[in-house]
Amino acid sequence: MNEVEIRKELEQDRNSVNSLNELNDLKVKYLGKKGLITELNSEIKNVPNEEKKEFGMMVNSLRNDFNSFYEEKKKVLEEEILNEKLKSEAIDITLPSTKVISGAPNMLEELVEQVEEVFMSMGYDVVDGPEIELDKYNFEMLNIPKGHPARDAQDTFYIEGEEVLLRSQTSPVQVRTMLEGKGEKPVRIICPGKTYRRDDDDATHSHQFMQIEGLLVDKDISLSDLKGTLDVLFKKLFGEDTETRFHPSYYQFTEPSVEVDITCHKCKGQGCNICKNTGWITVVGAGVVHPNVLRMSGYDPEVWSGFAFGFGADRLTMLKYDINDCRAIYNTDLREAKAFDRKEAE
Ligand code: DAH
Question: d(Cα 28, Cα 153) in Å, to the nearest integer?
Fold first, then answer.
């Protein structure tokens, strides 16, 4: 093909290119090893010497024209591809978004954390104990020997024979901690943890619940230390105007034993359905650690004294957030849990 024919051919080809692939095919057709321009260039050997220069310039201009067409077309095609892509991947920001439901810590967990903070600020350690426990720690070393009627009140899940059980209270952690202290070190702990009893689940009973145990063993400890300590706790949990009072009670592992009442935070002591019109609510079992308990765990009752207490964290949570069914605390159905949204409860 001569120059004129090649230009004519290119003129036709340039309008029929629609893709990068087609454009590359054209490059091969014109500038490849056997391309039209390449072949024309090889004709130079047949051109008389005096015309070689002009011929060379003509082929060059042909090549340049093709290259500039090629570059331009390439740019246009690439832009088209990009636009196509942007269009297909576009996000329609006018569409309404899905509603984000914000979470909140579980009420029980939050209450336990508050209790932990109060006690840590008073120098207590937060400790753990096993939920699968030995009868020895859950009862015997708390001064509740086998066959003692005090065991009946805690209808216990036994796992293996008479020795291995699901702890019915967090009090065994007292024993475990004292054993570690070897009768030499003062003890200052609280232990929040799950406990189990053979109860039928209903609005106020659960086979699994959360207790918080406390134990302080040191020298010259008395009931008034306990009163001061629990005062601080309940003012923090239920407000500065909350008051505490003791009334006598009975536990095998404390002597004397007390139950602790707080003023009803709902009616502020005026009387309402929550406090059964008394203005007070019993929330804690406590007392001075029984000398037998100290002795069995290696602490000499002539030297050491202490107080212990235990309370139901679920019950406190129910009181604090005005919940009348304890199952609601463990409910994971958001639609129902929402009914106890703290913003509404407070
Ligand atoms: N463990 C008792 C219970 O489950 C609660 C309790 C009472 C714990 C008095 C104590 C205590 O440490 O001193 O009913």
Answer: 95
CA 273 to chain centre: 35
Q: Residue 236 Cα, ligand 1 centroid: separation in angstroms? A: 21
Element (H, E) at 201: none
- The per-residue pLDDT for range 11-35, each reduced to its tens digit, is 999 899 999 999 999 999 999 999 9
Does 306 sit in the ligand 1 pocket, CB within 6 Å? Answer: no
Cα(96) to centroid(ligand 1), Å: 55
What amino acid occupies position 74?
Answer: K
Query: What is the DSSP secondary-structure string of 12-29?
Result: HHHHH--SHHHHHHHHHH
Strand pairing class (125-126; 187-196): parallel
What pLDDT score does 53 carry? 94
Relative to the CA of 287, which ligand 1 atom is closest?
A: 13
DSSP three-state, residue 188? strand
From CA 235, how far away is CA 241, in angstroms rounded? 7
d(CA 60, CA 284): 101
- Evaluate: CB of 254 within 6 angstroms of ligand 1: yes
Transcribe 83-140 into DSSP letters.
Answer: HHHHHHT---TTSPPPPPPPP---HHHHHHHHHHHHHHHTTPEE----SEEEHHHHTG
Q: Is residue 345 pLDDT above 50, yes or no?
A: no
pLDDT digit string (tens) for 292-320?
999 999 999 999 999 999 999 999 999 99
Question: Tokens 């463990």 identify what position?
Answer: 330
Q: How many percent of the chain have pLDDT more than 70?
A: 97
Q: What is the pLDDT of residue 344?
A: 45
Stretch 201-225: mean pLDDT: 94
Residue 222 sits at φ, ψ, to 5 deg, of: -135, 175
Mutate which of 141, 166, 173, 251 to test ligand 1's pocket (most atoms within 8 Å of Cβ)?
Answer: 251
Q: Using 50, 70 and 90 to split pLDDT, how confident is the model at 340?
A: low
The whole-angstrom distance between residue 98's C-alpha and the CA centroid of its chain comes to: 22
Tokens 């300590």 belong to which residue?
Answer: 229
- Alpha helices for 210-341 (secondary structure H): 223-238, 291-296, 313-321, 334-337
User: Alpha-carbon distance 170 to 198, whole Å?
Assistant: 16
